[in-house]
Amino acid sequence: MLKMPMTYEQALDFIHSTYKFGTKLGLQNITKLLEFMGNPQKGLKVIHVAGTNGKGSTCAFINQMLIEAGFRVGLYTSPFLESFNERIKLNNQPIDSEELASITEFVKEKIEEMLRQGFSHPTEFEVVTAIGFEFFKRKNVDFVVLEVGLGGRFDATNVIENPELCIITSIGFDHMDILGFSIEKIAFEKAGIIKQNSKVILALQRYKEVKEVISKVCKEQNAQLIEVEGNYHVLKNTLDGIIFDCVTPRGIYKNLEIKLLGTHQIENALSCIYAYECLQEKYDIKIEALVKGLLNARWNGRFEVLINAPLVILDGAHNVDGMKVLAENCKTYLNGKKIVAVVGILKDKEYEKMISLIKSVAQRVIFTLVPYQKRAFSEEEAIDVSKRFGLEFIADFKDAIRYALSVCEEDGAVIICGSLYLVGAARSFLKSMFDVL
Fold it and tell me: How far apart are CA 305 and CA 415, in angstroms?
């Protein structure tokens, strides 16, 4: 009997069924799976990006710059906002559902071979990473901009042996139960992507200990450390975008414009500028590609103005440092506006600190449940949190958003934040509600 090819729905079912294998940090499983697949990751030109905050935005800037330079660029990020396919892209186009199904079927067959030979089953992230590498190989991409999933040292993406560039974005406190409870331990895990004789761009950091750890690892690996300097001057900073000048040890850049909002996005753009200067040594990348890349880069769900009237902003601030930045952005862009915040936080986060931060800028805070997540608060737990912090509570995020819109003043703003999972679900809901995008 002829075997029917795997459908897209079956592919997603298979991928998500591997969630039960948990999070196992280490490279043994992914290395073995990729060997069974013929090592599709070998030969790819990879820009590897680790860090706590700013990874996605930095990837978006670099990805767009390389596209503007005329390259075929693979982009691998996580998590997705609205559709699983967003995690694996070619020149900003998510992987086609049919191709995702075909590659997933191929990977599943290789996993079955692994199991027959006595090896362990890969985790969900390892499976998705393997699918990404296979897709990029089949599409013969010129570059892959590869975002680390968790940590760096034992993350599945760290099977890459000779990256074109390693970039380490702002490091802060997140996933401490896995990565460690000191900034030095977290930085050490992120520094695990640094390979022998590689070039390492270190973004601006909030903690001085990070630089010490990264510098030590670079010396051990004989890697060239390039530290981003914060020499920039903001010319315009409104909800329409940011225009700035900056100076690096190699160049002067005038009137650069980005549409991603917040001064932290200038810092992420600086990492892209330094990446441009490094890549330009080997590849034909003109200054115009950098300028257009910065201008045209988009990264949804990060202080994203989704709707102008009423003003609705989405921000996947999912840890304390992210929430600090969100609070700063509210003061910069929404000064004088009464803010109604819809907040959903996973219970393994430092939610007390995060709630205090959003309460410092919002006049009303509505606590809601993060949908479709096993790490979400139960309704009883969320009610308890709401009582302790004096928050309004509405269990269903859609009802919470409707209510926030109904109580928001005409010149006020609604902010939806606390978890990317909430932001992604809210984005889909609001798009259908307002018929936008």
Answer: 9
Q: From its phi and psi, is residue 124 left (phi > 0), alpha (psi between -120 and 50) or beta?
A: alpha
Rounded to whole angstroms, the Cα distance separating 105 from 273 reads 39
pLDDT in tens, 289-347: 999 999 999 999 999 999 998 999 999 988 898 899 999 999 999 998 999 999 999 99
Q: Round to whole Å and give the CA distance between 110 and 104.
A: 10
Do residue 59 and residue 144 come from a single domain? Answer: yes
Residue 245 CB-half CA count within 13 A: 5
Residues 357, 325: contact at Cβ < 8 Å? no
Residues 124 and 89 in one domain: yes
Which amino acid, 163?
Answer: P
Query: What's the pLDDT score for residue 151?
Result: 85
How crowded is the C-beta side of 57, counted as CA atoms within 13 Å?
30
In-domain check, residue 42: yes
Domain that holds residue 272: 8-296
Mean pLDDT over all residues of the chain? Answer: 94
Name the strands in the sheet holding 232-238, side by side, starting at the edge strand that comes first in the sequence.
Answer: 232-238, 241-247, 252-258
Is 169 in contact with 71 (CB distance < 8 Å)?
no
pLDDT digits (tens, 9 = 90+) for 259-300: 999 999 999 999 999 999 999 999 999 999 999 999 999 999
- If asked whether residues 393 and 421 sit together in one domain, one would say yes
Please state, in angstroms and rounded to a whole number, the distance separating the CA atoms of residues 300 and 231.
27
Would you state the structure tokens that stand for residue 254, as one six-digit string?
A: 């005038």
SS3 193: helix
Alpha helices in 117-262 (DSSP H): 124-138, 176-179, 183-190, 208-220
Are 259 and 388 members of one domain?
A: no
Radius of gyration of the chain measured on its C-alpha atoms: 22
Report the alpha-carbon distance of residue 276 to residue 61 in Å, rounded: 10
Domain count, the chain: 2
Cα–Cα dist 53/50, whole Å: 9
CA-CA distance, 82 to 371, in Å (whole number)?
Answer: 12
The strand pairing partners of 88, in sequence order, are 76
What's residue 34's pLDDT?
98
Residue where a domain stops, chosen among 296, 328, 362: 296
